[in-house]
Design a protein that fits this description.
It comes from Photobacterium aquae. This protein is of the alpha+beta class. It is built from three helices and ten strands; from the N terminus they run αββαβββββαβββ. The strands form two sheets. It has an eight-stranded antiparallel beta sheet with strand order 3-4-6-5-7-2-1-10.
């Protein structure tokens, strides 16, 4: 009995690995994304690659649609597309759903085309989940702190830039000023 109790106490004392969290500082304030590396390992590692190489710094949220989502990470404030690593495999069938405050990979019509752009859901957008008729968009994390900053993005009027084929572009740039993995 004593040995079983000692074993149980030892298990309770062992550190539990915490989920990776990334702090994003913008010119509107900061927020924290918690990654789900277990359910979305490819998307999480891809996102962390851009965080760690520093290339998200200076990029903007270039598409903000109130009641839907805010998309960023791919363009600088002059709307110049930023270089990307190779596209990744779509992990939309990972069991995670596009719910309010979740973070997912943006992509083109090709399901396996996600690179550096990500979006944050303003509401439950289950129609973006994988289904038999839809390859879906891969959720890989969730905003766990500072969602009010994401909501503040909707207060900035948007415009259409026809020459670039871009809609819902904030008229005042929402810039990622710093981004870092928080210490566990």
């Amino acid at each position: 009995m004593a040995r079983a109790l000692a074993s149980l106490l030892l298990c309770l004392a062992l550190p539990v690995s915490a989920a990776t969290q990334v702090k994003v500082d913008t010119n509107l304030g900061d927020f924290v994304i918690q990654l789900d590396e277990k359910s979305a390992p490819v998307s999480s590692q891809n996102f962390l690659r851009y965080v760690e190489d520093g290339s998200y710094v200076g990029t903007i949220f270039h598409r903000v649609i109130p009641g839907f989502m805010a998309q960023g990470g791919g363009f600088d404030k002059d709307l110049k597309r930023q270089p990307s690593y190779a596209p990744i495999k779509n992990e939309a069938k990972n069991g995670l759903s596009n719910l309010r405050a979740t973070v997912a990979m943006a992509r083109t019509q090709d399901p396996n085309s996600a690179t550096r752009q990500f979006y944050i859901n303003y509401k439950d957008n289950n129609f973006l989940d994988a289904s038999p008729m839809n390859p879906g968009y891969a959720v890989f994390g969730k905003v766990v702190k500072g969602f009010s900053v994401i909501e503040k993005m909707t207060e900035i009027p948007t415009t259409t830039i026809r020459s670039m084929g871009m809609k819902d572009v904030p008229q005042q740039p929402i810039v990622i000023e710093a981004i870092e993995v928080l210490k566990k």
